[in-house]
Amino acid sequence: VAVTVTWPGGLKSAGVASGIKPDGALDLGLIVAARPLAWAGTFTKNAAAAAPVLWCRSLLGTPVRALVVNSGNANACTGPGGDAAVRAVAGAAAEVAGCEPEEVLVASTGPIGVALPAGAIVASLPEAAGALTPDVDSFARSILTTDTRVKVTASGSGAASLVGVAKGAAMLAPNMATMLAFLVTDASLDAPALQSALDAAVHRTFDRISVDACESTNDSVFLLATGETSVNEAAFTAQLESACSSLAEQIVRDAEGGSKLVRISVRGAADDDAAVALGRAVAGSTLWRAAVHGADPNWGRVLSALGSVDRSLDLGRVQLSIGTEPVFAHGAPAGSLDTAAKVMAADEFEIDCVVGEGPGAAQVLSSDLSPEYVTLNAYGTT
Amino acid sequence: VAVTVTWPGGLKSAGVASGIKPDGALDLGLIVAARPLAWAGTFTKNAAAAAPVLWCRSLLGTPVRALVVNSGNANACTGPGGDAAVRAVAGAAAEVAGCEPEEVLVASTGPIGVALPAGAIVASLPEAAGALTPDVDSFARSILTTDTRVKVTASGSGAASLVGVAKGAAMLAPNMATMLAFLVTDASLDAPALQSALDAAVHRTFDRISVDACESTNDSVFLLATGETSVNEAAFTAQLESACSSLAEQIVRDAEGGSKLVRISVRGAADDDAAVALGRAVAGSTLWRAAVHGADPNWGRVLSALGSVDRSLDLGRVQLSIGTEPVFAHGAPAGSLDTAAKVMAADEFEIDCVVGEGPGAAQVLSSDLSPEYVTLNAYGTT
């Protein structure tokens, strides 16, 4: 699917094939700016964070000129060789961008524990630099792994322009940005303001999606600002949240092996964080996700998941609905399972969990668990 | 598979078909004692605990004469009707056992949220009472759901006799006994001593297994003592732990849709509890479990799972082995993936995670995630 979106603020990007992916697909993305940009980033909290994540964290607070991302290799758990590979890539990108290596952000996604073929990337960066274009399309395609389509969002009329691209697929759980996303705006905000806006937006979007409850070593969300357009910070944060929300939803819709989008709405929790925890518990239940795959209204698995994280859950106050069909209310089964099954037969549906403990609410997006997910993830390392 | 094990202390049991299971399989088990027995129990911590769990918890500390268990229906999340069903079953069992309803333990396992057909159970209890025998076989078969075989353990030479039966299959995660298990001993111990021994044994066995990381609403472990044989408490606790360990392993070997037993050994954790938490994180990773299914040595998924629960994990100190093959050491990949893949091709193997933080150690038993598990759990409610 070709995308006809261009980066704001005159930014350019390219996507080329460096040979990391054996099938010759695009696997190397490059973004280059004409001058140093303020930026913000959120990264995985996983202690086994990948080498590029460690590199980017060390650059937080200083302006950047370029960004390199490869798919097909996570450069995670790769030891000192992994760090050296990041430096080699940043150095080569600095050369083609005309900046310092410490002005180059680096991101990777793919299998863990395999040495990054930095030489192939270094050799392909001049080709990428020669292919730079305002069009996001080839860059958006170069970052995909088992994603089946590009994920792009764009907004801007009457405000700052904001364009984002992302990739997802699997090893995707809500705890910080849980995939790769690259957002570019022409808003004029300094790094602390950008970081504050990004933290707020990520907390309410990428932190509330789950494909398989597995936290990645490489999750990164980048926000680059070219600075041409004055903005109201609150309005920009709302715009950013909307963009992140769009990308998050696109990621869940394209979940590895998944065929359904389930909006898990939790209301009446002690607070919003508690609501998120309850929603995540449901989103992470393999039994419930298997039932979603079969459109089987096995709501007991939802209650069981809620009760496994909230030890003081009072079943007498819990109301559970699948779509608009109540399936559990006043401490007992309710409604029609056949109606609930019809709701679940759709590609997208909502379950509503009212727990009766307080004002907290959140929506967590999740997908189904399919035999295909297992098959997709059962082989491949050797 | 017929089992030729008899209960200690003259206890008798039976298993009959009450019609709960549509295929006419055994679904109702009854144990009756000639006099009141001291007992201990551990139950799910799930806030959506089933009606029979609430009933048994209320009886802790008082002697019992009988135990009724049904498979094919969990009597969980069934509201006031579920509590009434338990009382009806306990009352009917009290009649055939010649005791009070408050001397009858009740357990259930099966789908959640379906009204228990108490009438069918009540009608079948006289038949069960007429079939009472010292042989555990029909009782052991009556408690099975998607289990493919009975799970029995027996020990006793030179000590107290101890016989246990269990059922498992799915919705099985380590947080308290995560299935049904019934242990009977002729040891002479009072209820507090039995409870202390059971808590210790369960903590190190049933609490350290995981099939799908889904915590059940019905998990219960019962220990009944007929009191003929004087025992040393420490020796009995060790005997009990061994019996629970055997049942726990049998449960994981017969995991729903599973074909492999994986011993996740964690060493060098801050303490034993931290080691259990790390082991559970690996056991709960759908990505790692899919790789186990395909015998794919994707050790990065193990590291990622460890790093998702231990935020201070120092990769430089982590050593990971699949069987005896090191796959990650000194902060970098090591060893041969082909050798590791051969290890994983076996029906049973161990992974060893040394995290270098302290003296804590634990072993968590887990299984693989198969397409069959998903298919088994995707349908059935309607």
Explain what you see.
The structure is a homodimer of 382-residue chains. The two termini of chain A are 31 Å apart. The longest helix of chain A is centred in the middle third of the chain and has 21 residues, at 233-253. The radius of gyration of chain A is 21 Å and the shape is globular. Chain A has 382 residues and is α+β, with helices and mostly antiparallel strands. The relative contact order of chain A is 0.14. Chain A is built from 11 helices and 15 strands. In chain A, helix 2 packs parallel to helix 3, helix 5 (191-204) crosses helix 6 and helix 7 packs across helix 9 (300-309). Chain A is 33% helix and 26% strand. The interface between A and B is large, with 77 and 77 residues.
Brief overview, please?
Two copies of one chain form a homodimer. With 382 residues, chain A is of the alpha+beta class. In chain A, 33% of the residues lie in helices and 26% in strands.
Give the SSE layout.
Two copies of one chain form a homodimer.
Chain A: E1 12-16, E2 28-43, H1 51-59, E3 64-71, H2 79-97, E4 104-109, H3 118-130, H4 137-142, E5 151-155, E6 162-167, E7 180-187, H5 191-204, E8 209-210, E9 220-229, H6 233-253, E10 261-269, H7 272-283, H8 286-293, H9 300-309, E11 319-322, E12 325-329, E13 332-333, H10 337-344, E14 348-354, E15 360-366, H11 371-377
Parallel strand pairs in A: 3-4, 7-9, 8-15, 10-14
Antiparallel strand pairs in A: 1-2, 2-3, 2-9, 5-6, 6-7, 10-15, 11-12, 11-14, 12-13
Describe this protein with a few key phrases.
26% strand; 8-stranded mixed β-sheet; homodimer; 33% helix; globular; alpha+beta; 382 residues
